[in-house]
């Protein structure tokens, strides 16, 4: 990850960002995304599918609403 | 209390009775909401008011009613729609400068269904720019204030929708909810707001935020009002006749099983929220509900997963504009969109796999439960500009605090609602969240309706 990428991620905290590098860092999203990936790789079976591969077939299409009457 | 103030605190069902009896007219109800809007204009709940169109609609709907053409329980009800929902012939800006000249050519599916149900569209409610934020401090359409304290945020991104219902400048509104944008403003403004199951209601004609989590839902004073709205918004073959809907809503609380997630109840929240939440649990118990403690694993990274999905997906929607129109975004949204580009594909897919992991645990829990109850937020409405809030002896970021509870239904694509359960020592509303199994919106609405039969928090006017 480049320095610019890291700065951009900090911006998502809403507390600091590329325009204000001196502002206090309260939420470090790089560390948070690392924590998520660590959790997933340690605890989830490798064949567990992303929700996006199955959710639409259950709720978005079969029982869901695509606007037609 | 003035006549307008009295009218705007009534349930939609009571307004419907009065309209049919002739003791109230559609134009009078519309004028009551417009009067409330005028009196509360500094709150900036609407970014585009349609008073003339609304008055003509109300007159036409009264003529229909006088001729015996009754369109149902929403006939003549004045509503506001969030500014990212298309209304034919009106601006569809999503609260942005980039779309400031965009005029909707046709109604969104939800707009069409509500008009067919007899809604009077009063205007478009103020929102966080492109729905990417939780304050409704919009640099293009103006800052929206909280109905209970103009110096505090109404939450977001559907902040105007929450403020308008609370203040009575609409009897009901539509918001969109990706990470909490209906439930958060409902909670901070002391009204009820429903996020339906992902895919249950069409989002066609609504500007997207994060497509795998986007939903559209109603805000109104009470759960019964939200149920009437939700029913009218459903696909025709999924709507219930009014009598059946009322029977489902009136289902007794007694004997129903409500889950509390261990570690996600009254821990690390402001003391007044903890007290109101405990009292709400006790109220459900007094009504005969069985309270069950459950464990959901891996919640310590739920906000992390939400941020990855909630940041990466909007950045794909805006990719063409981030570079070419960067000066037209507000600072916070521009920075968030740039940040969303930096998550890797593997991080994004891990977040989506985590959602499956979480959803399976919730599906298992719902085999023995009717609903899961959490606070909606760990704090009441922060002052404008406050980026962190004190909880006990530590500070919490408002961004991550906003997501702590609302991320669970968003990640799992399950329905949830926020309903008012009290006020803090500063007179600010407190909300609780009920999460339901997939497509069980009426189950959680009926539980909240049962609670609201014995409470008046949702009836109070700021």
Q: Biggest sheet of chain B: strands side by side, in what order?
A: 1-3-2-6-8-7-14-15-11-9-10
Q: What is the share of helical residues of chain B?
A: 40-55%
CATH topology of the largest domain in chain B: Amidase signature (AS) enzymes
Number of helices of chain B: 16
How many runs of DSSP E, i.e. beta strands of chain A? Answer: 0
The total tally of domains of chain B equals: 2
Number of spatially distinct domains of chain A: 1
Report the C-alpha radius of gyration of chain A, rounded: 19 Å
Report the average pLDDT across residues of chain B.
Answer: 96
Proportion of β residues of chain A? under 5%
Shape of chain B: globular
Oligomer: heterodimer
Q: Quickly count the helices of chain A.
A: 3
- Class inferred from helices and paired strands of chain B: alpha/beta
Task: Explain what the structure shows.
The complex is a heterodimer of chains A (69) and B (462). Chain A is an all-alpha fold and 69 residues long. Chain A has one domain. Chain A is 43% helix and 0% strand. Chain A has three helices and no strands. Chain A has helices at residues 3-11, 29-43, 55-60. The radius of gyration of chain A is 19 Å and the shape is flat. The N and C termini of chain A lie far apart (48 Å). With 462 residues, chain B is an alpha/beta fold. Chain B is built from 16 helices and 15 strands. Chain B is 40% helix and 16% strand. The longest helix of chain B is centred in the C-terminal third of the chain and has 21 residues, at 345-365. Chain B has two domains: 3-249, Amidase signature (AS) enzymes (Alpha-Beta Complex); 257-304 and 343-459, Amidase signature (AS) domain (Amidase signature (AS) enzymes, Alpha-Beta Complex), CATH 3.90.1300.10. Chain B is globular. At the A-B interface, helix 1, helix 2 and helix 3 of A face helix 11, helix 13, helix 14 and helix 15 of B.
């Amino acid at each position: 990850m480049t320095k610019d990428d890291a700065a951009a991620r900090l911006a998502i905290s809403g507390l600091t960002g590329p325009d204000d590098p001196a502002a206090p860092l309260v939420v470090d999203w790089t560390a948070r995304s690392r924590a998520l990936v660590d959790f997933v790789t340690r605890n989830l079976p490798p064949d567990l599918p992303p929700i996006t591969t199955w959710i639409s077939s259950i709720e978005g299409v079969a029982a869901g609403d695509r606007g037609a009457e | 209390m003035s006549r307008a103030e009295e009218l705007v605190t009534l349930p939609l069902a009571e307004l419907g009775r009065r309209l049919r009896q002739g003791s109230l007219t559609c134009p009078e109800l519309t004028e009551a909401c417009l009067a409330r809007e005028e009196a509360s204009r500094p709150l900036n709940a609407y970014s585009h008011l349609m008073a003339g169109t609304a008055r003509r609609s109300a007159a036409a709907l009264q003529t229909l009613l006088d001729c015996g053409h009754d369109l149902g329980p929403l006939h003549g009800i004045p509503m506001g729609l969030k500014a990212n929902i298309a209304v034919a012939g009106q601006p569809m800006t999503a609260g942005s400068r980039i779309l400031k000249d965009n005029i909707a050519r046709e109604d969104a599916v939800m707009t069409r269904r509500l008009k067919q149900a007899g809604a009077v569209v009063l205007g478009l409610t103020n929102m966080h720019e492109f729905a990417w934020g939780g304050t409704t401090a919009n640099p293009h359409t103006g800052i929206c204030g909280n109905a209970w304290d103009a110096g505090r945020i109404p939450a977001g991104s559907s902040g105007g929708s929450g403020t308008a219902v609370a203040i009575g400048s609409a009897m009901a509104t539509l918001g969109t909810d990706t990470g909490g944008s209906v439930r958060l403003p409902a909670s901070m403004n002391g009204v009820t707001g429903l996020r339906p199951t992902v895919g249950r209601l069409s989002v066609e004609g609504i500007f997207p935020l994060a497509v795998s989590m986007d939903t559209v839902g109603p805000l109104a004073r009470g759960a019964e009002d939200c149920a009437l709205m939700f029913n009218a918004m459903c696909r025709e073959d999924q709507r219930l006749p009014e009598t059946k809907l009322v029977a489902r809503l009136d289902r007794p609380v007694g004997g129903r099983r409500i889950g509390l997630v261990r570690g996600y109840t009254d821990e690390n929240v402001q003391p007044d929220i903890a007290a109101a939440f405990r009292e709400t649990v006790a109220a459900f118990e007094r009504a005969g509900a069985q309270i069950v403690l459950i464990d959901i694993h891996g919640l310590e990274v739920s906000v992390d997963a939400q941020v990855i999905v909630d940041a990466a997906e909007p950045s794909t929607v805006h990719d063409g504009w981030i570079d070419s129109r960067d000066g037209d975004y507000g600072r916070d949204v521009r920075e968030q969109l740039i940040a969303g580009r930096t998550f890797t594909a593997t991080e994004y897919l891990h977040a989506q796999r985590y959602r499956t992991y979480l959803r399976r645990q919730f599906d298992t829990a719902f085999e023995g439960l009717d609903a899961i109850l959490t606070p909606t937020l760990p704090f009441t409405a922060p002052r404008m500009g406050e980026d962190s809030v004190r909880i006990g002896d530590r500070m919490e970021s408002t961004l991550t605090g906003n997501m702590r509870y609302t991320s669970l239904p968003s990640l799992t694509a399950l329905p949830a609602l926020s309903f008012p359960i009290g006020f803090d020592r500063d007179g600010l509303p407190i909300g609780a969240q009920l999460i339901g199994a997939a497509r069980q919106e009426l189950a959680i609405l009926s539980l909240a309706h049962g609670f609201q039969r014995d409470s008046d928090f949702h009836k109070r006017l700021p």
